[in-house]
Amino acid sequence: MTEIKETLRIFKARWPEITFIIVLYVLSLFVKELLLIAPTKPTMPKSLLRLGHFIIIVVAILLKVGFQRTVYLEDRKRHSPLTLLRTGKLFLGRIVGFSIIYVPILFILAWLTFIVIKPFTTLKTGFWETFEVSPFAYQLCFATATLILIKPLLLTFPLIVVLDCRLFETFKLLKQCKLRYARELVILYFFSMGVLFLWVFMPNIKSATTFSEFLLIVGRSILQQFIGLMMAVMGVRFVASLNLVYYGSAKDINSEDLLRSPPED
Question: Residue 179 has what DSSP assignment?
Answer without folding.
Answer: G
